[in-house]
Amino acid sequence: MILLLEICEIPLIFPKGKGAHPSMGSVFHGALMELVGSDWATVFHQKGIRPYSQAVFWDDREKRPFWRLGFLDESISSVLVPVLEKTKSLSLHHQGYDVGLGRIRCRSISLDDEGAATGPVPIGAEIRFLTTTSFKRSGAFVLFPEPELLYQSILQRWPMIAGMPLEEGLHQVLGYYTMIQDYDLHTEHFGLEGHGVKGFAGSVTLRFGGSERVRQMAALLLQCGTAAGFGIKTALGMGASQVRLLTGREEGHLKRRRGG
């Protein structure tokens, strides 16, 4: 079965003297709920885990801030995207100013849950955490992208993506066969509802082991992270990520870059 996830990014135009910060994700979520109206806002609230992610981040390549929305359910994107296309600005009531919205750009991620990758089976993945990311385990925050937690984060959202859960304990199997090859991370605080959530941002490079099927499943789940985000509070601006699957060619480049 082919699964489609949609990612939309909107350039943000702030008033002179004002700027974007990842913690503004929670403010933009409130503005988004105003746009869709109280009926849809109630539906989203009742779902528990939201069928979308959203975040504000700075794009180093384009040198400007963006608002990213990832949709795990086509029925949700069909409601929100038309509204966003017609919206030219957002009123940030708490901040006391409006933010202009540029032209929305959307793209799809196509996933095959029978065979996660076409061509060479990926040997790993590089994940860039664009906004503060954190996980919770036994009530405590975890400030490191442990592979098992990355997979578990996506598996919690999988019923919304595919309509049914995957086998229990899959995150443990995939975590066992995934090694952290490299990382460049730092801790951050995400301002939320009057208090800070501690987390991390930066990048991590993962290496897959195990059978071809294990590596396919690892690639399949991690690819979802670009739309779903990783960890907690992804609907409020945390956990925004960019995932790039790696083949032997990228690995060779990585070794040459390090002088290996």
What can you tell me about this protein's structure?
This protein is an alpha+beta fold and 260 residues long. It has 8 helices and 12 strands. Strands 1, 2, 3, 4, 5 and 6 form a 6-stranded antiparallel sheet that branches. Strands 10-11-7-12 form a 4-stranded antiparallel sheet. The longest helix is centred in the middle third of the chain and has 16 residues, at 147-162. It starts with a strand and ends with a helix. The model is unreliable at 256-260 (pLDDT under 50).
Number of helices: 8
Describe the main β-sheet briefly. 6 strands, antiparallel
Which CATH class of the largest domain?
Answer: Alpha Beta
Whole-number mean pLDDT: 89
Helical residue percent band: 25-40%
* Structural shape: globular
The gyration radius over C-alpha positions equals: 18 Å
What is the third-level CATH name, the topology of the largest domain?
Answer: Alpha-Beta Plaits
From the coordinates shown, what is the CATH architecture of the largest domain?
Answer: 2-Layer Sandwich
**Topology, number of strands:** 12
Uncertain residue ranges: 256-260
| Beta-strand share of residues | 35-45%
How many domains? The number is 2
Task: Sketch the topology as an H/E string, one letter per element.
Answer: EHHEEHEEEEEEHHEEHHEH
Helix-and-strand structural type: alpha+beta
Alpha-carbon distance between the two ends: 40 Å
